[in-house]
Design goal:
Elements: H1 2-9, E1 13-17, H2 23-32, E2 36-40, H3 44-51, H4 62-70, E3 74-77, E4 88-91, H5 106-118, E5 123-127, H6 135-145, E6 155-159, E7 178-182, H7 185-195, E8 202-205, H8 208-220
Parallel strand pairs: 1-2, 1-4, 2-3, 4-5, 5-6, 7-8
Antiparallel strand pairs: 6-7
Helix pairs in contact: 5-6
Length: 221
């Protein structure tokens, strides 16, 4: 309840792991809406460019990014220690295919490991990276619950697949409908509350596996 109040008041601190063509536009939208946003990326050049207000993503206007950095709504770092001070953490890391055509989820696992170390009560964690059905509840959830915290009671976990069409001037992060699946109904509700601050149309589904399957079918199509 406290987290939901912070989200509604826009005092919740938002973190986005992965500042690529999905993560940076998402971070910018939250910052534009008034949230304090921290972008986390291991690429030092990306971190430096964001902190200098220089956009390297065509869908993010340089002036918009510069204004958000200047007003301290958006900062970037390569230090995962900042995760301890965040309320909402969104994972937007790449999932390339291996030579065997299987998804490489090593970046997802690395991000989850960093989150697990600093996870505390009252946080919501959202995975956006494309992956196979079952990743969120069968792989990520055990890592986050390993230290005794319980999902739906102490923290929230959800999957909301990245949906973006780079270079499309008509449809952007804000007006592309967003699918959201939570581990529990509470997780879904909190995540809907979070994305509802920046996205016009939300589509809650019954589970994280459903949301993951939606993305898989969409990519296949």
């Amino acid at each position: 309840a406290q987290l939901e109040r912070r989200i509604r008041a826009k005092t919740a601190r938002v973190g986005v792991i992965g500042l690529g063509y999905v993560g940076l536009p998402l971070a910018v939208e939250f910052a534009r809406e008034g949230f304090a946003v921290t972008g986390i990326d291991l690429d030092r050049s990306r971190v430096a460019q964001v902190n200098a207000g220089q956009s390297y993503i065509p869908d993010v206007p340089g002036r918009t990014l510069a204004d958000l950095v200047r007003t301290k709504r958006l900062t970037a770092t390569g230090d995962f220690a900042c995760l301890r001070g965040l309320d909402a953490i969104i994972i937007c890391v790449p999932t390339p295919l291996r030579k065997t055509r299987e998804p490489d989820i090593s970046y997802i696992l690395s991000a989850a490991q960093h989150i697990a170390v600093s996870l505390h009560r009252g946080q919501v964690i959202v995975l956006e990276s494309t992956t196979y059905p079952g990743t969120t509840d069968e792989v990520i959830l055990p890592m986050l619950q390993a230290r005794g915290l319980k999902v739906g009671r102490d923290f929230c976990l959800a999957f909301s697949p990245e949906r973006i069409d780079p270079g499309n001037a008509r449809f952007s992060t804000r007006n592309i409908p967003k699918v959201i699946g939570g581990i529990t109904p509470t997780c879904r509700r909190v995540t809907v509350q979070l994305y509802g601050q920046i996205i016009q149309t939300l589509i809650p589904v019954t589970s994280t596996k459903v949301a993951e399957m939606v993305k898989l079918l969409e990519n296949t199509f």
